[in-house]
């Protein structure tokens, strides 16, 4: 949730960390701070608001020093104040630390430490851990046999209930940086004469592409030229270095005004990348490299359970329709956060699939672990190579959508649907889906990038529709069958970036309650794809019109819509059933985007939100 960058090397730690924080800001943006050490002591600077405020507050000498830790915060404990911003420094001034996660037993820690004379300047849980490290450090014998700083970190972590990704420095050890993780991501960037710590690869790809993904309960001890990993209980761990093969420009804005716009317009490419190398024309099916399940094993599966949160959960609902329809396997979808603590009876031949863009969402990770603990086979559909969910699932499919920086998910959503469609095709062809039907589906999926490209040309038209509706404070999104998840996603997109109250419903459900909201002040967005129940959607639109509600209709070309029924119409190409959810998603993304811009909202950093939710 929060972003962490730590640096040790020969360069100016402050400048490098500032650059990293800017790249990480989507993880949390209510305050930020850094501590830099020049060997003589700590220089600390903090600021509330965006990282740009920190940048303005920083003075030239503070950017120097060859060691430092920094943080961009998404508040959990304590208000958004400078005192609560990280880094936190122990009351004796020896230890400074940044933290991502939640220390659940912080109250007991604080009580214990207060009795020992430690004092607290903030309301955060993190400061308790920082002082606990100082307490153990001060108690640790300094006999030269063991590193007392490292020992103190490990000892303190053994007392933590909760989650952490931390970076810590000690004023007596100006050439050492320590990091550790449990439940919150932390990676090591291996440079030439320098090493970094970060909560996300995005923060360090401008310095190095060689990374080590730290596992839970691991502690890394970094110097300029080397590093070693041990567990919290002091067992040594062999590091595996991975090469991040991202083009660093992928995480930069380029010609675009903001990341949401960039990511909406990248969809022809992200969709192409998700399909690349994944078709077998001979068998008219999809192929995947990393499922770690053979055809026989997959045929044994008689139920699939999808788990996810937010937008990814909406992608699961699409997957449910597609897999049930084309592969005839019963599918259930659960919110990861609910599944984790529910004792849901699952059939023994259930395959559990987690969908997550970041691969670090703690609710989804927790649910995946629970499914594994119960012995179920697990797969992940995920966009972040090396993420916890990717590493902990038994197999998976990478989305290859490229880094998604905008907090509101766009290209990751359509890419998750694309992967779900490929999976439906693959599972279908292992069962009853005919060769001919497979050919049709492959053809349909291959044309999606082009169709999305065409749809994006309606940007100006959708912007002008958005201007008409930006003043309303309520909105309904209505769709049936495969369009219901897209209605939910439309409502989520609109509310998270424009702060308009929006609800998604199956269109027919409107009569059972939500219709009470319809008035000239509450417009409805209908997702009315062609198909056997299109006429039913028209009837639902009539019901809205009869109550003076405005109707924005997103429909497939060729649909017969009576004159005067809709106030605004956006048409998507007529297409195969399997690709409708992707195509219908583009207008709802553009509509929400332009409404938010019209209302003067920051689309990339909506209030209260953060990308990658690593707290429960
Ligand atoms: O990284 P994940 O896909 O696991 O994230 C899940 C949700 O937190 C995420 O989709 C969230 O709902 C977005 N803000 C939606 O735009």
Count of alpha and pi helical runs:
19
Question: Structural class, please?
Answer: alpha/beta
| CATH C-level category of the largest domain | Alpha Beta
Q: What's the Cα radius of gyration?
A: 26 Å
How is the biggest beta sheet arranged? Answer: 8 strands, antiparallel
Small molecules (ligands, ions, cofactors) in the structure: 5-amino-5-deoxy-1-O-phosphono-D-mannitol
The spatial strand order of the largest sheet comes to 3-2-4-1-10-9-11-15
Provide the CATH architecture of the largest domain.
4-Layer Sandwich
In the CATH hierarchy, the third-tier topology of the largest domain is known as Glutamine Phosphoribosylpyrophosphate, subunit 1, domain 1
Number of domains: 3
Mean pLDDT across the residues is 93
**What share of the residues lie within helices?**
25-40%
The count of strands amounts to: 27
